[in-house]
Specification:
A hairpin with a 2-residue loop joins strand 4 and strand 5. The chain is built from 2 helices and 5 strands. The longest helix is centred in the first third of the chain and has 12 residues. With 87 residues, the protein is an alpha+beta fold. The chain has one domain: 2-Layer Sandwich (YaeB-like fold), CATH 3.30.2310. It is globular, with a radius of gyration of 12 Å.
Length: 87
Amino acid sequence: MKIVFTKHVLKKQEILKELGWNVDLKLVEQAVSRPDYFGKTSQNQPTAIKKLDESHILRVVYEIRNDIITVITFHIARKGRYNPSMK
């Protein structure tokens, strides 16, 4: 499936880079295609979680339409924040 990114995602990447988190979009793609954990947002959107290091995860929110995955947003969170079993 093709993966596309919203303008918000590209802006978020810039903001996180300024904060010291250099998140390559390839890593976001890997999270979606080979996540460590699947979940859903409170609005029932699919999420993919990938472990970054011993303390942090990358959480990606996306949607699938017509065999195209659109990444809506992503963020860095502390491990266990969205999946207690990942602590």
